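## Example record

The block below lists the input lines for one assembly entry, exactly as stored, with component labels intact.
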Amino acid sequence: MTEYQVVIVGGGATGVGILRDLSMRGISALLLEQGDLAHGTSSRFHGLLHSGARYAVKDPESATECIEENYILKRIAPHCISDTGGWFVQTQEDTPDYVEQWIEACAKAHIPTHEISPSAAYMKEPLLSKNVLRVFEVPDATVDGFKIVWANAKSARHYGGQYKTYHQVQRVVVEKERVVGVVTKNLLNGEEFMVHCDIVVNAAGAWASQIAGSIGIPLDVICDKGTLLAFNQRLFQRVINRLRPSGDGDIFVPHETITILGTTSQFVASAQENNPQEEEVKKLLSIGGHLLPGITKHRVIRAFSGVRPLHREDHDVTAVNEEEGRNVSRSFALIDHEIQEGVQGFISIVGGKFTTYRLMAEKVSDWAAAKLGNATPCRTATEDLLPEIPEYLQKKAAQLLPCAPVGKMLERLQEDAESVLMEIQRDPRKGQMLCECEMVSVAEVEKAAADVDTHHLADIRRKTRLGMGTCQGAFCTYRALPLLWQKKEKYDALQDELRDFLNQRWKGIRPILWGQQLRETELTRAIYASILQVGEN
Amino acid sequence: MWDGIIIGGGLAGLLAGIRASERGKRILIISEGVGSLTYSSGALDFGDVEQLQNREKHPYALLGEAPVRAGMDYLQMLFPNYQGTWGVTQDLLTPLGSPRKASLVPSGQNAEALQDAQQIVLMAPEGMKDFFPELIKTNLEKAYPQCIVYIHPFRVSAFESWYALGKSVTGMEYARYWQSKPGLEALKRVLYCMTQIFFPNQESIKNKKSVIIFPGLAATFSDPLKEVLSKAGLPVIEMTSFPPSASGHNLYCALKQKFKSLGGELLAGTGVQRIESQGKLCGKAIVRSKGRFTAFSARSFILATGGIFGGGIEVTAEAAQETVLGLPLYVPAEWTKSEFLGEQPYARMGIEVDSELRPINSRDKEVIFENLRVVGRMLAHWDPWSENCGGGVSLATGWFAGEKL
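Predicted structure tokens for the full assembly:
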């Protein structure tokens, strides 16, 4: 007896993408995620929707995949993407040889490039270094990792797909060389149970080798930690890349009112090692200063790290050094463990990058559909990720909320905005901004707090952006407490929720503790340690 | 020529100015900002003085017990409405309604009456920002299990148009309103209505020990307000509030007024650019105002620029700097620890001083300026948040500097 045809392990972009794709084909699927959706690498990157230009020279295959997916995602998920465009900028320190090579490689991969003069560039980006020699425009864009993951999950659910968060897969269960299911543990109540299925898809990203390892299958996933900085302003209007072979600190990606500078590359032993370090921050600032002079004068609100799950096929790697992280292909691999290890119905999807998540999902789903004898073709490249936001909702939102939060809320909630707006209409007080930095209303946080798959304050943060702005939780953490309290059966004691949340925020502030963010920290400690006496009770 | 110039007009700077003025000194306070009392609860913490005195280099250890006691006594002498007894802490309520302790508490915030209360009426002003009556009720019931807690929601006509728009009213705005003439009348009516509902006759008040808890109210420095409250016939306890706080702000205003009434001069809104010095003596404070530089001379100086939060210490990605004189700073090698609300080494950054609060070189312990004293958050080797002694250190060092000037 099987409960589901497919169980997907991992709730990052790839996992939810697979869930949606399978569900659209009428294949019953369950996704199991050990934390909250998008808690891992899918929300811990610079948020660049690659044009492919970055990979054109070194990894043409990836570059082609990127440009194709770039166009597809801009079409099917416009509310998750800001089509800012991007520049590749050659400074005086960068070699001209590489530029020519790059132009040619982009052309080969069908990535349009368009040169603009440095003087025209300064008009558009006044903060850009004056040491710029050449500037090329490419179709880079920015993407909101949280939004795209939630949108996929929502759409999958619409098609009958199911997911469970805070469910850790303990092991894959194999009988007679054939997958029959997985044993999963509900991390919220400790309950362990078996889910029966015909196929298990291992999309656990940086955790994928643990899943394969549960049945003794070796899977070489390299954990490559990347650290990034979030600046408090939108310093540039478009993505700014350094035109040179990829290195640390060579990309600025603007998102709404902030800018992200990325990225370092360092091999780590496990996916848990995602604490940003002071040395990485220093390195980023020193290299980023070549594109943005006076970089340290701009307020940094946070550092964060993600762990890229890179795939390398040879198993005999012994010595790995930092530089190698960039040399491992960013393309993805689909590993059918029947061919490799003789286990039927088990597939791992490793490597790849956020921009190609849909394509990876399509390939996996094609494989699963073939195994299950399902001939329905993939529709994710053509069908919109989410329906258009109806005009009456837009109008209603504009009536009830200040203009700046309207778009943000609609993009996050889509048609679910209706219940939030109704609530604000019923009780105008709920239209107040609970999170003033990210402009999130009381009613929206209330809705997120009540959601079935919200279990911690951090889950509310990922859904609403609460606590992710300038104050880093100083004010909004306190304001979210009564909403958690109203649903207290779901959450840990307020004291614990609060302390955990503040400690999580602190993790990203510690390596950038100077300037205004240091002052903010003094205020936050005053509020919670002294005024609210949280440390005491 | 001033007898003393105090740079910084927060709690420590103002207290130093008041004490020195009282002693007949001509004092000028130059204050760029407005101090940080408005971000505080209005209550003042001294922490575990005995224990902190044993902590090497802690301001309490440098000064010894007498100035710490003197700081506490002095504030109470200035403002008899602040209650506190050496070695004893007072009860008060956090903005979440949980009980806490502090050393010096504005009389209105004293929550002692809750100890043997049987009924609590929590006043719930309509639309008050950062005030969560249901949650407070739960916390009160937990802390005072013998009590029945009622919530009494009310609204006042002055804010009707705000309510209609769903606009919140901050505790500061409510507190300011209650102090106005129409506010006082409204408060009488609000209290009267509440009494009619919960205590329709004198018997019902006497039979059960009842207490009123009132957020967004700061009566400590207002006699008319205190009079209205006294007529309620029941003890009224003010809650401390989430920042900004009316109680903290009122203390700030009262200190300023006291300083001015003693003949002190306050130059506000501009900071000191630098100090001209000769050898080990500070001579002139250079102030930039309206595009011009002006020099003020004094015999003595007090640096009370409020540390990191006050702006007296600026930290960049590369270095930390004392902003007025460029004095050497103690900067801990380890900067932070993982538990946010626990010990954080960065917070102990500041200026090292001798037992007279004069800045010293860390190497040879030599005094850098003979006529400069450093007070409050500018001092090294203490942390108000893990040691709970923010008020105590500011009062003790402020008093001491004012006494010695």
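The longest strand of chain A covers residues 300-311. The CA atoms of residues 325 and 382 of chain A lie 34 Å apart.
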